[in-house]
Amino acid sequence: MKGYVILISVVAALGGLLFGFDTAVISGTINFIQPYFGLSEAGLGWAVSSLLFGSIGGVFIAGKAGDHFGRKKVLMLAAFLFLLSAIGSASAHVLIFFLISRILGGIAVGIASILSPMYIAELAPAKYRGTLVSMNQLAIVIGILVAFFSNYLLVGTGVNNWRWMLLVMAVPAIVLFFSLFLVPESPRWLVARNRNDEALKVLIKTSGKETAQAELLEIEDTLKNQEESTFSELLSPRIRPLLFIGIILAVFQQITGINTIMYYAPKIFANVGQSNDTALLQTLMIGGTNLIFTLMAMALIDRFGRKLLIIFGTTGMMLMLTGLSILFFTNQTSGVLVLIFILGYCAFFSASLGPTVWVMVAELFPNRLRSKGMSVAVVALWIACTIVTIAFPIMLEKLSGGITFMIFALICLANLLYVLKYVPETKGKTLEQLEKLFEVRGIEIKE
After folding, report:
1. Do 359 and 429 form a contact (C-beta atoms < 8 A)?
2. 211, burial (CB in 10 Å: exposed 0-12, middle 13-18, buried 19+)
3. What is the pLDDT of residue 445?
4. Count of the separate structural domains present in the chain
5. More confident call, 311 vs 281
6. What is the mean pLDDT of residues 330-342?
7. For the range 158-167, what are the long-range contacts, defined as Cβ-Cβ under 8 Å and sequence gap of 24 or more?
8. Which among 407, 381, 338, 410 is positioned nearest to 140, based on CA atoms?
9. Which of 135, 225, 353, 392 has a CA 20 to 30 Å removed from the CA of 289?
């Protein structure tokens, strides 16, 4: 039973791997596509963020299409779009074709960012849900690491090196597409479509015969006599506080600055005097750090809970960014300390905000509103990511590294204060139990 659930989670998490790869692979190409397409700093920001504009559209596609066609079929669409994006961006000779291809990849990223964690959350037993949904974040950081590693290996392949870097994504896209034939549809989606017998068969395989029938009845109870959900219901007095928590957590995950490192690390290292080869090697170290500390988060998230990890990690991120800011203010950026603070920042993020936000956004909303609630929260995430991605190279140029990283440190402080006061704990309960607890007791869930 446990092996079957792990298989399902691994297949779904391949969407996260492609999500991570596609968002990070651009970092290794920016020092080559900027002169190739003749981009200014602002133009580079727009080119890098083109994927993110597609991601916003992909989130909306995921919510509606995922409810109508099922999680599994729409993930297959995402795999196909990842493949098109890889081939298109790698073969682009004009900027507009490059941007269109990246936008297609962004649509796939948006779909995967919603449906991969949602699909895992809806299939995972409550006891292991935090760990299994965190597999999606693990896959994201593995995708980032693979992107950094392949970029480093391909940097010496000549003037077309950036094309090979982008084309690598075609391989996992094909693997995801065919792997999805091996896994079932979400039992909660099946019940919503009155396919209860099929849902029971899936629950027996994922939860065991002893609890499958009771879990099916619990799912039926939360969905019975309920009409098709609408986005306006997210603003009802009972759901609105949960929506705000989901949005604010998602936005803070991005505006604390993580993707400025993921997208622009080679540029940051180049700006402090490193060669392209050395900058890509140091970026590879970032990918390794992300992987190690995401594994740590997976081991801890169902033991200590989501909230404690966020508090611990955000505090560490704030300290690392403050140290990085001081180095830039004092012109001490030529040594190894810049790398240490960046690695420390990534470690704290990967052990906290990275996986926990995706888990909590998948847990907060009732069954019938989950796809729509997640869609709104993740759209907010991608909008925040887009703004930061466009603004960062301009901030670095106009404000200096010291001011830029201090701004991100202050945002971490704001996130810490918000989580301490407003964010509930959600570990250890089924999605249906959480739904009833939110309804009866509001959002003040205590262990």
Report:
1. no
2. middle
3. 40
4. 1
5. 311
6. 82
7. 161/32, 162/28, 162/29, 162/32, 162/33, 162/36, 163/90, 163/91, 164/90, 165/25, 165/28, 165/29, 166/25, 166/29, 166/86, 166/89, 166/90, 167/86, 167/87, 167/90
8. 381
9. 392
Residue 379 one-letter amino acid:
V
Could you write out the DSSP letters of every residue in 402-446?
A: HHHHHHHHHHHHHHHHHHHHHPPP-TTS-HHHHHHHHHHHTT---
The total of other beta-carbon atoms located within 10 Å of residue 75's CB is 27
Q: What is the pLDDT of residue 238?
A: 76
Q: State the CATH number of the domain containing residue 379.
A: 1.20.1250.20
| Residue 228 per-residue DSSP state | P
Q: How many residues does the chain have?
A: 447
Provide mean pLDDT across the span 267-278: 69
Residue 104 inside a domain? The answer is: yes
Residue 314 pLDDT > 80, yes or no? yes
Closest CA to 43 of 394, 399, 400, 395: 394
Residue 88 has pLDDT above 80, yes or no: yes
Q: Tens digits of per-residue pLDDT, 282-310?
A: 778 888 898 899 888 888 887 888 888 99
Q: How far is CA 5 from CA 13, 32, 121, 216, in A?
A: 12, 42, 11, 17
- The whole domain housing 49 covers 2-183+225-441
378 falls in which pLDDT band (50, 70, 90)?
confident
DSSP-assigned states of every residue in 363-384: HHS-GGGHHHHHHHHHHHHHHH
Domain assignment present for residue 207? The answer is no
Question: Does 85 or 214 have the greater pLDDT score?
Answer: 85
Rounded to an integer, the average pLDDT of 111-129 is 81
Please choose, from the candidates 434, 381, 446, 423, the residue with its C-alpha nearest in 3D space to the C-alpha of residue 109. 381
Residue 211 forms part of a structural domain:
no
Q: Which residues contact 355 (CB under 8 A, 6 or more apart)?
A: 133, 134, 136, 137, 138, 294, 297, 298, 301
Is residue 147 a contact partner of residue 20, using CB atoms and an 8 Å limit? yes
> Sign of the C-alpha dihedral, residues 98, 99, 103, 109?
positive
